[in-house]
Amino acid sequence: DTGVSQDPRHKITKRGQNVTFRCDPISEHNRLYWYRQTLGQGPEFLTYFQNEAQLEKSRLLSDRFSAERPKGSFSTLEIQRTEQGDSAMYLCASSTAAANEKLFFGSGTQLSVL
Amino acid sequence: GESVGLHLPTLSVQEGDNSIINCAYSNSASDYFIWYKQESGKGPQFIIDIRSNMDKRQGQRVTVLLNKTVKHLSLQIAATQPGDSAVYFCAENNAGNMLTFGGGTRLMVKP
What we know:
Helix content of chain A: under 10%
Order of helices and strands of chain A: EEEEEEEEEEE
Shape of chain A: globular
Distance between the termini of chain B: 41 Å
Oligomer: heterodimer
Number of helices of chain A: 0
Structural class of chain A: mainly beta
């Protein structure tokens, strides 16, 4: 499978716990994006990387959210001290660095905070 | 902020009919638009895209129309099939490929 891979597919956690999600992009793509999607809504942009550089992070929802892409390949998204409002689908996408290139999305990680 | 939105939340069509899903956008400076299909439990799947220097683009059974005068985008699906049932999103591509999505239209295909 050469698509975008996300792990885990589902995560159930208790309020206050930390969670980390992983994304493996398409191998030749040097841009990687994180989005959040709540039920019935379109995906909402969070952050993106070009190689290992995080070029936009102002739209991360709070300082409890952080993302890394240390080697310019896979990325992780961490949410600290989870709250019930963090329950959502977290989507990863990748693309080439060319202008106006389509994004390829993974199947997402569904987070439920109890 | 500027946003992309959809007129109809749900569209129900008969199998074999053509479907038209509409989208209004507000950022007149946007120069690239994408339609995505999302099935339950899956991530958005690319369908077709169009750049602002075009007003029509055709794919396999799908056509996207762009009217920059009224800032309107539409997706036409020919001979709609049960497998087309999904939620469809239009998205506007901002600088750095930061997509802004609309709220989605659910397409239901009746056999």
